[in-house]
Design a protein that fits this description.
Number of domains: 2
Structural class: alpha+beta
Shape: elongated
Number of strands: 8
Strand content: 5-15%
Number of helices: 8
Largest sheet: 5 strands, mixed
Strand order of the largest sheet: 2-4-5-7-6
Helix content: 55-70%
Order of helices and strands: HHHEHHEEHEEHHEEE
């Protein structure tokens, strides 16, 4: 309603209210005299004028605020559209660049491996062998980074699907994933304990992604746990049917702010272990994105200098339990 319309309505309401009050207080059954009518007019003006003036001011301010909110909403909608376009362009660029980089990198890895293992004959200079080993190790590290970037870009661009999802028994897959990290645990002097029970739990998911999530999370836990510490992997089925896989370490832990930063792509907290390990800060964000792609989620709890627990959650619709029959 416009300001003029609102003023008319308020004036009419004020007249009706003032007249009603006057009649209730002063009407004694006699006819309406000129003096009584004059009194009604005075009372109406006394009531209506302040009310109308104040109401007009409030209505004007509300209209101004509404116009400002409308303008802000339009600008915000435009900014959101621009951000979505920029994000899609970034994801597409990363996906294309990662693909283009992997092709020559695979050639570098292949040729360096041939030289490192001396398949075409001995390399008599030990320094050359050392250099080739470094080239191969660096290439494998770079390929792992590119694969992580490519996977994250695909998820953000909505191009990674669960078409390859299959139903598999969870405990053996987790055990084999931990076996791949045995060397890393020995390197840093950290014991890895598998507390998963053979409970017949089956998961409908992309097995490669589940392995990658576990390797990323357990690998992080090992790297940021001092020598002599331990990492524990356990699982349980919740009351709502969902399944939780918890990875607990006795490492350096994090604050709330550090946890939030660690979940951001390329987010790496500065601590006494940062310079000792290679990494890009993609492990946690990628694990979180892959879990969310499966309809699940990732939670973290941590206490500085006491350790961190990262929990993977798979929804109930992806979890079944195979009946275990004793032999």
């Amino acid at each position: 309603m416009s300001t003029a319309g609102s003023t008319i309505v308020l004036s009419a309401l004020a007249v009706v209210m003032a007249s009603s009050v006057h009649f209730l207080l002063h009407f004694d059954g006699a006819k309406l005299t000129s003096l009584a009518f004059f009194n009604i007019v005075i009372e109406t003006l006394a009531v209506a004028v302040p009310l109308i003036l104040y109401s007009r001011r409030v209505i004007t301010q509300l209209e101004k605020s509404r116009n400002q909110l409308t303008a802000m909403s339009r600008r915000l909608a435009f900014a959101v559209d621009e951000a979505e376009l920029a994000n899609r362009a970034k994801s597409s660029f990363l996906a294309n660049m990662s693909h283009e980089l992997r092709t020559p990198l695979n050639a570098i890895l292949g040729f360096s491996e041939v030289m490192k293992d001396q398949h075409l004959g001995p390399v008599h200079n030990s320094r050359y062998l050392s250099y080739v080993s470094d080239i191969h190790a660096s290439g494998r590290h770079l390929l792992a980074i590119i694969n992580d970037v490519l996977d994250l870009a695909k998820i953000e661009a909505g191009k990674m699907s669960l078409d390859n999802a299959i139903q598999f028994e969870l405990a053996p897959v987790l055990a084999s994933s931990l076996a791949m990290l045995a060397g890393l645990g020995e390197k840093y002097g950290v014991l890895v304990h598998n507390e998963m029970a053979e409970d017949g739990v089956q998961l409908k998911a992309v097995e490669r992604m589940v392995r990658q999530i576990v390797i990323n999370l357990v690998g992080n836990a090992i790297k940021f746990t001092p020598a002599g510490g331990a990492v524990f992997l356990s699982g349980r089925r919740r009351g709502d049917g969902a399944y939780e896989i918890a990875i607990r370490d006795t490492g350096i832990g994090m604050t709330e702010k550090e946890m939030a930063y660690a979940l951001m792509p390329f987010g790496q907290n500065d601590n006494r272990f940062t310079g000792k390990h290679d990494g890009t800060g993609l492990g946690l964000p990628l694990a979180k994105a892959m879990l969310e792609l499966h309809g699940g989620g990732l939670t973290m709890s941590s206490v500085p200098e006491m350790g961190t627990t990262v929990t993977m959650i798979f929804p109930a619709e992806r979890v079944t339990v195979r009946s275990l029959v004793a032999a």
